[in-house]
Amino acid sequence: MKGIAKTERVRFQNTLTFLEKTLPKTSKILDLGTPNDMSAFLTQNGYEIDHAHGQDFDLHPEVIAKDGYDAVTIFEVLEHLVNPMGILQAIKAPRLFASVPLDLWFAKAYNNDKDPYDRHFHEFEDWQFDWLLEKSGWEIVNTEKWNTPVSKIGIRPILRRFTPRYYMVEAKRP
Question: Cβ(167)–Cβ(148) under 8 Å?
């Protein structure tokens, strides 16, 4: 994991540990997103990953409705969608592993004015994400939260050491 920031290494390792609890390495995974450092890390650790990318998922949720997968992973993608329910309902795989950033009272939602796809439409509280999953037809099996240790000085970096930033959920179709 050379060249990857410490906060990302922590997030990647936490994600891998969460998956390894119940998802066998022989599982075929459809990841909602483009190939990235996280999917490369999971592939290096034994998972077979295909990607569903290249479309606007709000307008084309059917892109993810593909058969033949044991699980779908969605890591820090749903917060970018106006309507994440459409994607969640379209999934055909029997299992879902998804993570989202949690809404933090001391940090505003992320917005990159230069790139319209690089902004957060939603940041969730855990109960909101649970409710979205349940309304989309999923049964929550396992959850976990973790924080993002930051080596900067200041009030927000100190608060980030103690406040969970990411929320990971494993869900299945009932």
Answer: no
Q: What's the CATH code of the domain at 128?
A: 3.40.50.150
Backbone phi, then psi, for 26, in 5-degree steps? -80, 0
The pTM of the full predicted model, rounded to 2 decimals, is 0.85
Question: What digits encode the pLDDT tens for the residues 104-134?
Answer: 544 556 665 666 656 556 778 899 899 999 9
Domain that holds residue 29: 6-172
Give the C-alpha separation, 95 to 170, whole Å: 7
Structure tokens at 149: 């240790």
**Cα distance between residue 85 and residue 146, in whole Å:** 24
Instruction: For residue range 7-47, list pLDDT tens digits in order.
Output: 678 888 999 999 999 999 989 999 988 888 899 999 999 99
